[in-house]
Task: structure prediction
Amino acid sequence: MCGATESKALLQVPDHLFAQPGKYQIVQCCSCELVYVNPRPTLEALKKHYPDNYFAYTQLEEISRPLQYILNPSIKSSAIRRIRGIERVIGQLPQETKVVDVGCGLNLFLRYLGELRGCQGVGVDFNARVAEYVRKKFNMPVVYGTLHDAGFDNDQFDLVTMHEYLEHEPNPLQILTEARRITRTGGHINIEVPYIGGIPARIFRSRWSQFDVPRHLVFFTPRTLEKMLKRCGYQLVAVRTFGLPFVIGLSVLHSLGFNKLGGIKGAGWLLVGVAGTPFLPFVPIMHEFMSIVARAE
Ligand SMILES: [Zn+2]
Result:
């Protein structure tokens, strides 16, 4: 973020999800305090770490029908939680709000935003198979590639959203600069990322599910994300850290030695749910994620 090269080593972390050989070093910049993977894989090398069976790419048809009945309401409620989180800060989103969702995956956020508020949005995703699926299945516009590939116009959007995306980005500073360029002054950005300052990150250390190297490359606190946003022309308006039920089950399973969970589908998530159940009463204090809203200045 700041260009300094001096950093201190924090942790050595293996690839828990796909059990590929080797370990990745997580360091903290001595100057700006940003925590990141160093050295960092090239974009070309990274592609191998996003296989088609990666659970983030699971398509609805790949989940059995009974499980869809359990999972669909939780997918919808997470979209609603995100919409409400934004509206708590900037007020109800009018129908004419122009939105781009970067790292849109199956485009579920924009689908529910359209359903609930009538807003038209465009998704951007790096996975060709997922982008094709969204176009065919939901008939929604998606750009396949990076935000830079999309080549949107200056000031084209009122709202940019990045949900569990920025931590995957090899150059977050560059991507936020591009996000600022395509947002009108006074527009907003909503970012949701893992929160490295929370209790789960501290107790699970290298087995914390969100140290998901080398897919996750940057780890934020409100302070470091605010610094980065400021550099890119944003003013932080609101920040909220929070826990999600059952996600901690993934860290529990990593700690018990389960190290090939990257390709789990529906039934596997039940196992994660069971492992996370004992932690349910602590969700209000076990903050694993943070969500911010910032204004384009
Ligand atoms: Zn730095």
In short: The CA atoms of residues 117 and 133 lie 23 Å apart. The mean pLDDT is 93. Residues 65-90 form the longest helix (26 residues).
